[in-house]
Amino acid sequence: MNATEWKEKLSAIRGSFSVSIEKKPAENPEALELHYLGRKGELALLLRDLKDIPLEERKPLGALGNAAKQEMEAKLAELKGSAGAAGPVVKSDLDLTLPGWPYPKGSLHPLTHTMNRLAEGFLKLGFTMSDGPLIEDDYHNFEALNFPPFHPARDMQDTFYVDAKDQAGKFMLLRTHTSPVQIRAMEKQEPPIRVFHTGRVFRSEAVDASHSFAFHQIEGLYVDKGVSMADLKWTVDAFMKDLFGSGVKTRFNPSYFPFVEPGAEVDMSCVFCKGGHNSAGRCPVCKGTGWLEVMGAGLVHPNVLKSAKYDPEKWSGFAFGAGIERFAMLLYGISDMRMLYENDLRVLKQVQ
Ligand code: DAH
Question: 110-351 maps to which CATH number?
Answer without folding.
Answer: 3.30.930.10
